[in-house]
Structure prediction request, 147 residues.
Amino acid sequence: MKIFTFTGDTFAGHWEFEYDVNGFLARALNESKMEDKQYEWLSRHFPIHEHMLPTIITKTSRVTEITDLSFEMFWERFGNKQAKVNAQNAWKKLSKVEKIKAVEGITPYNYHLQINTHLTKMLPASYLNGKRFMDEWPHQQKARNRQ
Prediction:
């Protein structure tokens, strides 16, 4: 079985798709709040097979395979390994979607630090507790404005 989440910037929550060993949809869980037009769009593009997942990815949505949402994976990827217990406690409070977004947000945050060398990387607990993975960094805003 493989499990994927579908999240987006234009709707709250997420969809979860689970596929069997042959790639066919075995389960779909809707934990999102979408507008009618978004439901209509998804119904036309509903990924009944795993190979159809790329068809639902847009500029404002993403599909993420859930393989490892452990704290240790986050700890290794984030770096700045300080105040581990505080970070573990913050991690436990996050929903599954927030954990995915926290991991996805590390790369843009690190790039923000690379181009702003005067800034210091925050502690992992601060990143998680402040939900800084939800921030849109200036380089992301510029890229969005060019679209």
In short: The chain has a mean pLDDT of 89. The radius of gyration is 17 Å.
